[in-house]
From TrEMBL, chain A:
It comes from Xiphophorus couchianus. The keyword Nucleotide-binding does not apply. This is Small ribosomal subunit protein bS16m. Belongs to the bacterial ribosomal protein bS16 family. InterPro entries: Ribosomal_bS16, Ribosomal_bS16_dom_sf.
UniProtKB/TrEMBL annotation, chain B:
The lineage of its organism: Eukaryota, Metazoa, Chordata, Craniata, Vertebrata. The gene is MRPS22. This is Mitochondrial ribosomal protein S22. GO terms for molecular function: structural constituent of ribosome. It comes from Xiphophorus couchianus. It comes from the Eukaryota. One of its GO terms (cellular component) is mitochondrial small ribosomal subunit. Pfam families: MRP-S22 (PF10245).
Length: 127, 329
């Protein structure tokens, strides 16, 4: 029997940039592809989409085909970090530790910014 | 000439496809006809109620198959024998019955307030909300998981309006828009009603909203109120919305205008069936109990009703005079 589909690599579920002829408007497809393929090249199956720019209602739309994701994970597919973070945010996976770290870093930044503006206002009030 | 008209309308229907806009997948499958539970209040879907409503909707072929805005095609003429014409008319009545299938009347849906997780550690993770939709193909849209992660970390289920929007994004339905038409605002509705375009409004509403959403019920009630205020019942007469109108009026107990209109157009049978429907739905009202006591049928049913308002009395008298004149001459 001739094996047509032998690949030395493994399957990953990752984000592939779609519509890369459009500058400054990213849109990602969540895709099951072989590991060594190019990021935007031929994939095995599309499992969803991710729009990183928020819409008029301030929402970032993510779609997942959970049925097929379960199948590919059952077949031994790995997930990339951004996909793992998104799945963690959606509640399908447990929360990714980097999401928590990023949230903490943002809060620290926000606090710094607050204290900075606070001291500026004080200075202006003094003057 | 009348024969030609029928043939013309039959063939413009059969050749030109009816715009898919006005068929939603709800109605192509048959609506369940429930049998009534003993002693319970009759519902819209009961077989007896549906029977009455479809009878009073009427079946005016000329109106059902009137020319709609389609691509212009030249009409075809066929030469038929009388038998073939009758068969063609039967086929047309079957099609008309399918088109006159009534859209469902459901109680307003309860808002979704389900919170799946509260993660305070994620507070401030991003400035925007993340909306996760499940795109699995073979689940009904009502059971789909659509979940929102707020910037303060709470994971909650999406509200009904959000659900409608996202289902439309990923599984677009023809004719439906993401933001509803400007027509559905109050001021614009008034303008459209003054132009007598209630049927178009109701068709648009059917396509755009889910039957149990607040907007759908609001638009329908506004339309029915306006029709009842101006007595323009004939606009909806041979359309699929007539049953809904009749049901709304019966539940609001304001059937008098409709009965008078029917008597004026000499539709006695329809008036009788409407009154019997009223008694079915409100068996505890005075006139219902009187009628049950006297076991009235036919025109007597209407006369029992007249104890409540003089209008119907006058209308009945006028109808009987006309009938007498007609039989005399």
């Amino acid at each position: 029997m001739v094996l047509f589909n032998y690949h030395a690599g493994y399957v990953v579920i990752r984000l592939a940039l779609a519509g890369h002829k459009q500058a400054n408007r990213p849109f990602y497809r969540i895709v099951a592809a072989y590991n060594k393929r190019s990021r935007d090249g031929k994939y095995i199956e599309q499992l969803g989409s991710f729009d990183p720019l928020p819409n008029i209602y301030n929402e970032k739309l993510v779609s997942f085909n959970f049925d097929r994701i379960k199948y590919w994970i059952g077949c031994g597919a790995h997930t990339s970090k951004p996909v793992a973070k998104l799945l963690g945010l959606s509640g399908f996976f447990p929360l990714h530790p980097m999401t928590v770290t990023e949230a903490e870093r943002r809060r620290a930044q926000a606090k710094l910014a607050e204290t900075a503006t606070g001291t500026e206002e004080e200075k202006q009030a003094d003057v | 000439i009348i024969l030609h008209n029928y043939i013309l309308t039959l063939f413009t229907f059969q050749l030109g496809h009816f715009p898919l806009k006005y068929f939603t997948s709800f109605f192509v499958s048959h609506m369940y006809l429930h049998s009534p539970r003993a002693g319970a209040k009759p519902r819209f879907t009961d077989a007896a109620v549906q029977d009455v409503l479809s009878r009073i909707t009427g079946l005016d072929l000329q109106k059902v198959f009137r020319p709609i805005k389609q691509e212009l095609k030249p009409p075809t003429y066929k030469l038929m024998t009388d038998e073939q014409l009758e068969q063609a008319i039967q086929v047309a009545t079957e099609e008309a019955k399918k088109q006159l299938q009534m859209p469902p009347v459901l109680p307003e849906r309860k808002p979704i307030n389900d919170v799946l997780a509260v993660d305070k550690i994620l507070d401030g993770m991003d400035t925007a909300k993340y909306v996760f939709t499940d795109i699995t193909y073979n689940i009904p849209h009502r059971e789909r998981f659509i979940v929102v992660r707020e910037p303060d970390g709470t994971l909650r289920k999406a509200t009904w309006e959000e659900r409608d929007r996202f289902v439309q994004v990923y599984f677009p339905k023809q004719g439906r828009k993401l933001t509803p038409h400007v027509l559905f605002k109050e001021e614009n509705l008034k303008t459209v009603f003054s132009q007598d375009r209630h049927e178009d409004v109701l068709n648009l509403c059917l396509v755009q909203f889910e039957p149990d959403s607040a907007d759908y019920i609001r638009v329908h009630e506004a339309t029915y109120e306006d029709l009842e205020k101006n007595g323009k019942y004939n606009l909806l007469r041979s359309t699929r919305h007539f049953g809904g109108l009749a049901w709304y009026l019966v539940n609001a107990r304001r059937v008098d205008g409709l009965i008078v209109d029917m008597l004026r157009r000499d539709m006695l049978q329809d008036a009788i069936s409407l009154v019997s429907l009223f008694y079915m739905v409100h068996p505890h009202s005075e006139s219902a109990q009187e009628a049950a006591g006297q076991q009235a049928t036919g025109t007597d049913l209407l006369k029992v009703r007249t104890t409540q308002s003089g209008y119907i009395d006058l209308a009945l008298q006028a109808y009987e005079e006309k009938a007498a004149e007609g039989s005399a001459s």
